[in-house]
Every structure is written in C-alpha cells, then in structure tokens.
C-alpha cells in the first residue's frame, strides 16, 4: 500500500512537471486494460496485417477464435510468440476490395501494396501476392460472428474494408490505422474512410494519435447505437 501511494505520488509529480511544459499526460489507450472497458462481445477476432502480431488485442480476446491474415511469407515466424497457446488460424493472403494479384513491397511492419510518397528511399524487395476480399477469406471456413476486426495495411485499409461489406454486417468494432495526410499514390482521404464506415453503420468511438508523428492515427469504429458511444462510457483517466 505504501509503495503504491509513493508510486502514484511520483506519477502525479512527473505529470505536473510535463503539464507545465505543454504536455498532456493520460493513460495509454492502445492497451488491453483500456480496450477491455468497451466489453465487446464477439466470437471471432480478425487481424488483417499481422507482422509480429497484435498482443494487445490477443490479450483482450484470448478466449476467442483468432484469424490472422497477412501475405508476408515470414508472418508466422514473426508472430509465433504472440499467439502461442491461443486458438488461431493463419491465412496467408492479401485482403482487398476485389480478388486479384498485387505487388507487395517488403518493408517489415511497413510493408505495403501501395507506392509510398512519404519516404525518399526506394522500396526493398517486392513479391507478387494473391489478394482476396475479406468476405471470401472468412466465408471459406464459416467463422462465427459477431466479429471484431483490426486492420493495419499501410494505406490499403479502406480497400480491405470495401471487401468486407458482408462481414461488417456482423461486426461490433473495427480498429484501423488511418492516414491523416497523403502518404501513398492514389491513397484515400481520411474523410473517405469516415464516410464509408458511416455508410456501413459505424461511428467513431475513439482516435488514438501516433506517438512519433501526425501523419496517421488509429481509429476505433463501433456500430451505431453501441453503448460505447454513450457519453463517458469509456473515460480516459488523466494522470495529472
């Protein structure tokens, strides 16, 4: 108890000092503790764009079916530790608005099917991959809804969601990386993503800024009418 009180006091003092220098201090929202407060009731969690995995979400939904979708050849080698002991399926495929073949630039967590305009360096190795719609990929094994979906596909996020119209009808939330500024050739505008999700019956419940820059954010969409949209349903705690 004494240790906890001292720790809280130290946190408050540090937060107060940072506030005086123009910073706002609050809890980490990209965390299992924070996301658990939404109390989403789903049967299947779909992770599109896996790389090393999404342990924050795997912790929240560790007793649910996990479906990992990523076209990179070393995905399961990279993500093995984060899904060990969990009930998961891995589908090696790209996801998009239509079925086809596309070129993937291999850049680790920044691998993309889009051509970047926000980097000066040339892309590294490229490979040809198969792309299918999320509706097709999930229908093959008849996964049970309701679904929760995370999308992190470096600029291809709206394309992924456009290929998921049937799945979205059974989806409680979508957590996606979203570009605020133009980062890719032919990339979507942020307003287009918001408008598309509104057409599918979703509203923005939270926006989590990127720690290093303001070119992108993480956006949590929840179905219209969800309790998560009620005022102060999931409060953020300031530390100061």
Written description of the protein model:
With 240 residues, this protein is an alpha/beta fold. It has a single domain (28-227), classed as Rossmann fold, CATH 3.40.50. It is built from eight helices and ten strands. It has helices at residues 2-20, 32-36, 55-60, 75-83, 134-139, 157-162, 165-168, 190-199, and strands at residues 44-48, 65-69, 88-91, 94-95, 100-105, 126-132, 147-151, 171-179, 202-209, 216-223. Strands 3-2-1-7-8-10-9 form a seven-stranded mixed β-sheet. The protein has a three-stranded mixed β-sheet with strand order 4-6-5. It starts with a helix and ends in a 17-residue tail after the last strand. GO terms for molecular function: O-methyltransferase activity. InterPro entries: FkbM_Methyltransferase, FkbM_mtfrase, SAM-dependent_MTases_sf. It comes from Sinorhizobium alkalisoli.
What's the structural blueprint in terms of helices and strands?
Layout: H1 2-20, H2 32-36, E1 44-48, H3 55-60, E2 65-69, H4 75-83, E3 88-91, E4 94-95, E5 100-105, E6 126-132, H5 134-139, E7 147-151, H6 157-162, H7 165-168, E8 171-179, H8 190-199, E9 202-209, E10 216-223
Parallel strand pairs: 1-2, 1-7, 2-3, 4-6, 7-8
Antiparallel strand pairs: 5-6, 8-10, 9-10
Pfam family, one: Methyltransf_21
GO molecular function: O-methyltransferase activity
Organism: Sinorhizobium alkalisoli
Summarize the structure.
The chain is α/β, with parallel strands linked by helices and 240 residues long. It contains eight helices and ten strands. The protein has one domain (28-227): Rossmann fold (3-Layer(aba) Sandwich).
